[in-house]
Amino acid sequence: MSGAGVPDFFYREAQRLGYVARSAFKLLQIQKQYKLIKPGSSVLDLGCAPGAWLQVACQSLGPLRSGGIVVGMDIKKVKVPPQCDSRVQTIAADVLNFPRQKIRELSPQQLGFSVILSDMCHSVSGITTRDAALSAELGMRALDLAVGQAAISQSPNDDDGGPNESRPGVLRHGGHLVIKLLESEDAQDFARICKPIFNKASWLRPKATRPSSREIYLICQGFR
Ligand SMILES: C[S@@+](CC[C@H](N)C(=O)[O-])C[C@H]1O[C@@H](n2cnc3c(N)ncnc32)[C@H](O)[C@@H]1O
Q: Which residues form the active site (predicted)?
C-alpha cells in the first residue's frame, strides 16, 4: 500500500506477480543493476520477513540444477514463501545475538556466503535520530557479521585500532554485501569503512522506496 493507504504501482505489481511484499522490487532493481546473485550463489538474507527478497533471491539462482542456497533469518518466524524451492530455508533468530559460528555452519561446506543481504529495520518511531541510530546498529551488525572485526579494524576509517582476528566474517572473499540504512551521518561512515575493504561501494535508492522513506542501500561489491 502507499502511505495514504491507496494501493500503489509496486503493491499492485507484487500482488499480480505473486510476491509476498512490494519490497521484492527493491531487490529486483539491485539485481538488474548489479547482478550480485548468480546461479550457484549462497545467499544470507538478514531480516527476511515476510519473504519477498527470499523469492527474488531464489529466482536469481536460476533452475534447481544450478545449485545454490538461500538462508533467511528474521526475529519473526517466517514460512518459506510461495515460488521458493528446496534451496530456501528460514531461521527465526535475533541477528544481533545469534552466534556467528552457527551462521557459518549454515553455509555450504561452512565456507561462508557469497552474497549477504541486510534489509533489517526496526519499526520507525518517527524520531529521526533514534531511528537512524537503530538502523546503524543493525547495519553495523550486518557489516561485522559479513566481514569480521579484523577487516573493519584495518579500514583506515575505523578508530578502534589494531586488527582483531577473533571475529571472522561469514562473507567469502570476492563476495557482495547489501546493507539498508537510513540517511544520516552514520550512514556516510559505513561508506567510508566499506570503500577500502570492497572493490566498490555505492549507494542506491530503489524506485520502489516510498517517497516518505529515508532508506538507502549501500551496495558493496567484491570483498577483498
Ligand atoms: C523491511 S522488513 C524486511 C523485508 C524483506 N526483505 C522482504 O522483502 O520480505 C525488515 C525486517 O527486519 C527484521 N528485523 C529487525 N530487527 C531484527 C533483528 N535484530 N534480527 C532479525 N531480524 C530483524 C524485522 O522483523 C523485519 O521483518
A: 180 (proton acceptor)
Query: For ligand 1, what atom is nearest to the CA of residue 53?
Result: 8
**Catalytic-residue membership of 79:** no
Classify residue 11: in a domain, yes or no: no
Residue with the bigger pLDDT between 64 and 167: it is 64
CATH classification at residue 109: 3.40.50.150
Distance CA 18, CA 10 (A): 12
Q: What residue numbers bound the domain in which 101 lies?
A: 23-223
Dist. CA 189 → ligand 1 center (Å)? 22
**Sheet with 171-182: strands ordered across:** 88-92, 69-74, 42-46, 113-118, 171-182, 215-223, 198-204
CA-nearest residue, atom 24 of ligand 1: 47
> Looking at residue 164, what is its pLDDT?
46
Query: What is the average per-residue pLDDT within 123-151?
Result: 92
Residue labelled with grid coordinates 551496495: 219
Report how far residue 52's alpha carbon sits from residue 14's, in angstroms, rounded to the nearest whole number.
Answer: 9
For the complex shown, is ipTM > 0.90? yes
